Structures are given as C-alpha cells and as structure tokens.
Amino acid sequence: MNDDLAALAARIDHTNELLQRMLAEVAKTPSTHAIFVDAGYLYAAAGRLVAGTEDRRAFDLDTEGLIEALIDRARTIFADSRLLRVYWYDGARRRIHTAEQQSIAELPDVKVRLGNLNANNQQKGVDSLIRTDLESLARHRAISDAALLGGDEDLVSAVEAAQGYGARVHLWGIEAPEGRNQAEPLLWEVDSQRTFDLDFFKPYVSRRTAAAYEAAGARPTREDVRFVGAQIVAKWLAARGRESLVELLPGHPYLPGSVDQDLLVEAEGLLQYSLRGQADLRRALRDGFWEHLQAQY
C-alpha cells in the first residue's frame, strides 16, 4: 500500500515538474499581435473624414505612411508584444492586384488579401477572408491580440471565432463626422474599442485638385482603350491560363455576353471612365482584346 502511495506521489511530482517547465516556457514566449485592415472601410471613413468624400478617385491615400503609423500605434498599445504582420483586405476585379495593391503587398510585414469587386464596385468575400485569418491565427496560438480596423456587422462572426480560441480582439475605428460608421453589434462583441481622429489621418489623406480629378474622368483616346483591352486579356491569361480562353477564338469577332460585360466593367475601372454609350471606344476595347489574344496562339 505504501509502495502504491509512493508511486502515485512520484507521478504527481513528475507531472508538477512538467507543468512548471511548460509554464516557464510560456512565460518566455512573447505575446504576438496582428493588425487587420478592411481597406473598404478605411478608404470610405478616412476619405469622408479628411476629404469629405468616399470616392477613392477624389483623394490620395499614403498607404505606406499610414500602415507605418498603425504599426507604431500598435507598438504603444501592445507594449510587451511583437507584431506578426499587417493584413490588408481589399477588393479587386477577378482578384487581380491593382498597381496600388501590388505596392502595398511589397511592403515589409504586410500581407494583402483580395476579395472580388463586383460591377457596382462593392467588395465581396472580404469579411470571410478576415474571419478565416482571424480564426486560423487564434486557433494556432499565432496571436494573442488582434487589432481590427473595420466596421461591418458581418465581422461579428470573425470576432467570435477568434475569441473562441482565446485571442483578444480590439476594434479600431475612424472618427465619423456625424453618427457612427461601425455597427453596434460589432462594438458590443469586441474586447476593447479605440477611435482614431482627424489629426491622426490628416498627414496621410490629401484631396486631389479639381484639375487632377477632372483629368481622371477625361475621355480616353481609342489607343488608350485599345491598350487597356490588351492589358486585360494579358491579366486574364496570366491568372487563368491559356486553355481557359482558347474557346473564345472560334467566336471572333464576337465575345459571349458575360465575357463582354466583364471586359467592359474591368476596363471602366482601369480607365476611371464610363464606356456606356461610347460605341467607338467599346469597339476599340474589343479590338485590343482580340489582337492580344490572337497573338498568343
């Protein structure tokens, strides 16, 4: 009997020793935080606050400077924590990076995630990307704290998922000129809230001059539009592969309605100009598309 008690006591001592070692290792492991930025919310709210408009074409955003400012602010808030990275969520036609998104992706410690952008310039799939990353990082104990810059009610499930694995989620917002620009259910769910004011964003948002803004909407030339048609098919080929577009060749010079509509919408986004009712420019767009496509086969 005494031998059994001694063996049990030895096992308990061994277990306690293992627990103490584990706790010591945990104590030596630094806390880690990540910043999650919903770019759609950022552009709309910061543009409204500083430039008085949500139209991205009407103002410039110094994304590199702003991201560095957010990282610096996080260092102050999470003083005993290290940064994992900044996650930047935005929308793009067919999830193909724009030049601006590519420059953001090249910044150190920044990961760009792209949802789709529909014909009405509305982001689709961004909230689900945020939830996937938040949940995965929390589940694998990659982060202890998440700073979420966003305002959509659909982000509530992302917050709940991360909290379910023990991560704390801190909601960052942008001052609204009037009312609120963040959903109340989201405010209720997070562990803390923080709002950045006009002075914080002023150095990074600048309204474009009237001349620059009007130039962005000036009627492009036929050669400009032809080039964009070629540019789009080159992107599609790179993203989908040659086999995906070869079936279009027998239909030349006509494109299926859905493909023609996608081409039109993407071209308007690149040109920042509506091609509706512009028959000559629509023809130039298709000509550029076909010329580049046929040259690849």
From TrEMBL:
Which segments constitute the NYN domain?
Answer: 34-178
- List the Gene3D superfamilies: 5'-nuclease (3.40.50.1010)
InterPro entries per record: NYN
Q: What GO molecular function annotation could you give as one example from this UniProt entry?
A: RNA nuclease activity
Q: The organism sits in which domain of life?
A: Bacteria
List the protein's name.
Answer: NYN domain-containing protein
Which organism does this sequence originate in?
A: Streptomyces sp. R28
